[in-house]
Amino acid sequence: MAELEVEIVAADHFVWSGPAKMVKARTADGEVGILPGHTPLLAILHAGEIAIEPVTGSRITATVDAGFFSVDSNRVVIVADNAKIGESAAGIR
Amino acid sequence: MGAQIRVYRQKIASTTSMRKMFKAMELIATSRIGKARARVAASLPYANAITRAVSAVSSSSEIDHPLTTEPTQVRRAAVLVLTADRGQAGAYSASILKQTESLTELLRGDGKEVATYLVGRKGQAYFDFRGREYARVWTGGTDNPEFATAREISEVLLEAFATRYEDGGVDEIHVVYTQFKSMVVQEPTVVRLLPLEVVEENAAEAKELLPLYEFEPEPEQVLDALLPRYIESRIFAAMLQSAASELASRQRAMKNAGDNATDLIKKYTRLRNTARQAEITQELTEIIAGADALNA
Question: What CATH number was assigned to the domain covering residues B63-199+211-250?
Fold first, then answer.
């Protein structure tokens, strides 16, 4: 099964990257879930939480403030001014 | 004679203590430069992602956004100058200011008014000393820039850009900063920030076909949200490059100063020794002459 390649970057540092099965994020219009094979998308991100379901291991949440994210050919790039991996991601950073 | 030795001793002592200072500053600059370069590298993923996104939006839809349209007539230009807060960095601030002067002259020659925005105390001192006006100044932390400062600067510049000329607004924005090419080469560079020409940093990447994105909400709104971020990221990148360059210049300048101090100490020591030997010889001659006079 195809998987997503996720990358989270903040303005002044790299936050996280890895393979994932699903990414959930909040956009201006509401919440979107992204699965492998999603059409290319460029959307404005709302402040809030992003949930990532990695291929291995437990779900990761990241808190972001305003930013945007893009999806193309199973590559998800989340760009935020500030991004922090939540506590459920113990041991990642 | 004794006086001469004392003078050399004083000179040696003061040069030695100065050399200690130069050495310390060199070491501080060396230790910070690695961090500054790491920060330049760390900001790259963000800058790349945002550049890619902006070019995706602007290429997929023909939008007339105020930030990307060329004004018909440019009457006032803003120049953002990134200098250092502290001196002792060789020609770092001086060459930036020289670059600024020639840019200002060029713009004035085209019949444009120039509004200068300064970053760093050295730039401020330069303008204050000459009694010249500047629109705004930011000082503090030029060798360790914060993203918040970059955001503040870009907000001020974007606001000036959005204001009409009659109300004191500007029609284009230039940035003068020092590009960090390597530890030995740093180049003062001028870029035009606004109106925007979305530049592909990497020519190879430009050839790669951008996918047809779906936009959420509308392309216009996405661009609205992206462009200020893009400006912010460009300014922040310029600040980081300048910081790395400042530290590299300081390290080099301090190394040279330290080397020169070593040479001076050597020279003064030689002179002191000569003076001391001359004094001893003189004393001996006097004693011998005295003894001879008594014996005769």
Answer: 3.40.1380.10
Q: What is the ipTM of this complex?
A: 0.77
Judge whether A92 lies within some domain.
no
Q: Considering the entire predicted model, what is its pTM?
A: 0.83
- Rounded CA separation B207/A84 (Å): 34
Across the interface, whether the CB atoms of A11 and B39 are under 8 A apart is answered no
CB contact under 8 A, B52 and A40: no
Question: Are B53 and A42 within 8 A, CB to CB?
Answer: yes
Q: What is the pLDDT along chain B (296 residues), one digit of tens a residue?
A: 578 899 999 999 999 999 999 999 999 999 999 899 988 888 888 888 888 888 777 776 666 677 777 777 888 889 999 999 988 888 899 999 999 999 999 999 988 889 999 999 999 999 999 999 898 899 888 888 888 898 899 999 988 888 888 887 888 899 999 998 888 889 999 988 877 765 544 444 444 566 777 887 777 788 888 888 888 888 999 999 999 999 999 999 999 999 999 999 999 999 999 999 999 999 999 999 999 999 87
Residues of A in contact with B215 (CB under 8 A): 41-43
The CB density around residue B245, as the number of other CB atoms within 10 Å, is 30
Tell me how many domains chain A contains: 1
CB B188 within 8 A of CB B95: yes
**Rounded to 5°, angle at Cα A38 from A37 and A40:** 120
Interface membership of A5 toward B (CB under 8 Å): no
Hey, is B295 helix, strand or coil?
A: helix
State the DSSP code for B10: H
